[in-house]
Amino acid sequence: MNLLQMADVRELMLPEKFKQMETREMEERVQKIKQKLGKTLFIPGHHYQREEVIQFADATGDSLQLAQLSANNHDARYIVFCGVHFMAETADILTSDGQTVILPDMRAGCSMADMADIHQTERAWDKLQEIFGDTILPLTYVNSTADIKAFVGRNGGATVTSSNAKKMLEWAFTQKERILFLPDQHLGRNTAYDIGIPTGQMAIWDPHRAELIYEGNVHDLKVLLWKGHCSVHENFTVLNIERVRTEYPDMNILVHPECTREVVEMADFNGSTSYIINKLEQAPPGTQWAIGTESNLVKRLIALHPDKKIISLNENMCPCLTMNRIDLPHLLWSLESIEERKITNHIKVEKETAENAILALQRMLERA
Using an 8 Å Cβ cutoff, are 78 and 41 in contact? Predict the structure, then answer.
């Protein structure tokens, strides 16, 4: 590592003074800076964030919702996005040039998004075109990098969310005979199954082996699933469900569609984060729920609904490690950098990439 690279690394590291501060001091300092910056500051916080950060969020929600709120907040000059890297990228893509998007900790990534990089995707696209010709439309989960969104936009495809994936998959099949679904195989598989496509007409693209894995006749395939997954949701298992059924026979099991097909099939309900939140809000008092999603959100739901018995489907589940990166010291560091006009961890998507990514986002927003 040369001296310039070492300097770059040091700029991304939390200064020592924030590690020495007491929690109360940091909370008071955050609140003071928020009041000083007023409407020029907007702090969106994803549902999976720590409570120490969420308490200061101006809005909570899923990644796309928060990016849209940021874009529609014309008073906000600074967007301090408490989420992960791909979410901050989406916010930068949608916001104006006069708005600055900041990610408090650059280590806050997403393992799923990182499972599909642009070089792997372009290589896969070339090979799949050789097999299937011009019969494929790419779709990408919004949990993907700006480069992948741009690739999909350039090739006529769209983004999807876990809420609208079914509608977008149905639209995609009006455009082309086959779908390449990135980067989460489980959401793609569960959604395709829900619209009537048998698993025998689905294949997995392994980006490391550059190989299409399938059974039967290759030309019968309809959905080509990228071999990616959410490291949190894939850890909910059939054994977890069997344990809950045994210990709590009256308990409802509610999971996210990023879980495996086997888990989704055995659950009573499945849906997006918003669906899970709304389902609990509408549930009668006294009902029992085992939730298969990120633990910070499950803990928040438990606190919000003391009239219901709520547990994690996997009670040994840890929070998402990358989602959990942003803490109170990093939030304060970001706010002080704004106050001192020395912006740290500025997220800026290159213009051409942003323009192509917007195409993919717009195709979804026009239909969702």
Answer: yes
293, two tokens: 């999603």
State how far the Cα of 95 lies from the Cα of 348, in Å rounded to an integer.
11
The CATH number that applies at residue 138 is: 3.40.50.10800
Contacts 24+ apart (CB under 8 A), 8-13: 11/344, 12/106, 12/344, 12/345
Dump pLDDT digits (tens) for 275-332: 999 999 999 999 999 999 999 899 999 999 999 999 999 988 766 777 778 999 999 9
Q: What's the rounded Cα separation, in Å, for the pair 83 and 320?
A: 11
**3-class secondary structure, 352:** helix
Query: Ramachandran region of residue 216, left (φ > 0), alpha (ψ -120 to 50) or beta?
Result: left
pLDDT tens figures, 211-256: 999 999 999 999 999 999 998 899 999 999 999 999 999 999 999 9
3-state helix, strand, coil in the chain (%, to 5): 50, 15, 35
13 and 90 both lie in a single domain: yes
Give the end of a domain, one of 230, 245, 273: 230
* Structural domains of the chain, count: 3
Q: What is the crossing angle of helices 146-154 and 85-94, to 10°? A: 50
Tokens coding 25: 């001091």
Q: How large is the C-alpha radius of gyration of the chain? A: 21
**Cα angle vertex 316, ends 312, 318, to 5°?**
90
